Amino acid sequence: MTVSLSAPLLVALLAAATAAAGADRPLRRRFRRPRLLQVLAVGAALVLVPANIAYGLASRSGAGPAADGTTTGVQVASLAVLGGLVGLCGVLRIAPAPARLPRRVLAVGAHPDDLELACGGTLLRLVDSGHEVHIMVMSHGGRGGDGNVRAGEAESAGRFLGASGIEVLDLPDTRLARHENEMAEAIERAIRRHQPDLIFTHSGNDQHQDHRAVHLATLRAARQHPAVLCYESPSVTAGFRPSVFVDISDQLDAKVCAVATHHDQRAKPYVGERQVRGLAAYRGGQARVPLAEGFEPVRMTVPLIEEQR
Questions:
Q1: Which of 129, 161, 162 is nearest to 305 (CA)?
Q2: Rounded distance, CA 122 to CA 229, Å?
Q3: Is residue 209 within 8 Å of 176, Cβ to Cβ?
Q4: Residue range 58-71, pLDDT digits in tens
Q5: Which of 40, 131, 208, 275 is the most buried (most CB within 10 A)?
Q6: Of the listed ranges 162-171, 228-237, 297-306, the one predicted with least confidence
Q7: Given phi > 0 = left and psi -120 to 50 = alpha, else beta, which region is 73?
Q8: How far apart are CA 21 and CA 19, in angstroms?
Q9: Burial of 153 (0-12, 13-18, 19+ CB in 10 A)
Q10: Residues 6+ apart with CB under 8 A from 274
């Protein structure tokens, strides 16, 4: 028994440790407290792999019944740890109940990282609940970084979020106000194509000229739409007053990972993990939940997230 179990246990322990150490994005996307899973899996492998090897060799060399008994104990402990990790994965897995009425959502942003920063947690929760999310970005963000790189990062982040569609336009960064008609027409086409039940866009209470321009273009394009919410960018003014909140306690780790997808912007202070978590905690305090994102409603006539009970 001792010899036959050694190889499978070593393989299983090494596989668990390797997967945990190298799968940061998938862990963040599917589990709460992904760092805990990584630490436990790697720590267990560091202790139990050498122990299995040492006692397995001792048993094979005929070191005696005591050594064989110790080896069996190590293997039992290894099996228990593996079982515990599997059970913990089940407990920490993010698995929201599917929506009774799946909805379509259109999220409109000015630059490649705007949506992840402002409403990434909400988009993640919507996708996880079975809703269909479409993303539209107006600019490659060439004035604030490498436009070619940032466009690709927007698509990568959108795929990580689970968006059904990602459209990145190439209107001039920092000069979107000159192209309000083009943006409004593009958003109108997206509304006709996707028939969204809910639209997210920038707030009018924002210091960035591109954000204000996208806000106005969206309001024009969605002038007959019954559900429009404005999200919080790092550049919002003190006039931003959210009254709609979404609990993103299960999605914050994944949101941090989505923001980190924008490597081109990693030097910007507002993309740091500490800042992202701090804002979520602040809005969570206002909403009386652990972590949240806040929105200003232009109009809101449908439940934001409707899940089975």
A1: 129
A2: 12
A3: yes
A4: 655 555 444 555 55
A5: 131
A6: 297-306
A7: alpha
A8: 6
A9: buried
A10: none
Using CA atoms, how far residue 148 sits from 24, 25, 151, 154, in Å, is 25, 23, 5, 10
CA distance 109 to 99: 25
DSSP string covering the chain, please?
A: -HHHHHHHHHHHHHHHHHHHHH-HHHHHHHBSSHHHHHHHHHHHHHHHHHHHHHHHHHHHTT--HHHHHHHHHHHHHHHHHHHHHHHHHHHHB--PPPPSS--EEEEEESSTTHHHHHHHHHHHHHHHTT-EEEEEE----TTSS-HHHHHHHHHHHHHHHT-SEEEE--PPTT-GGGGHHHHHHHHHHHHHHH--SEEEEE-SSBS-HHHHHHHHHHHHHTTT-S-EEEE--TTB-TT----EEEE-TTTHHHHHHHHHT-GGGTTSGGGSHHHHHHHHHHHHHHHTSSSEEEEEEEE--S-SS----
Task: Give first-to-last CA distance, the chain, whole Å.
Answer: 47
> 182 and 150 in contact (C-beta within 8 Å)?
no
The sign of the dihedral angle between the CA atoms of 201, 206, 208, 212 is positive
Tens of pLDDT, residue by residue over 174-228, are 999 999 999 999 999 999 999 999 999 999 999 999 999 999 999 999 999 999 9
Report d(CA 94, CA 250) in Å as an integer.
Answer: 7
Backbone angles phi, psi at 124, to 5 degrees: -60, -45
**Tokens at residue 76, please?**
């039992």
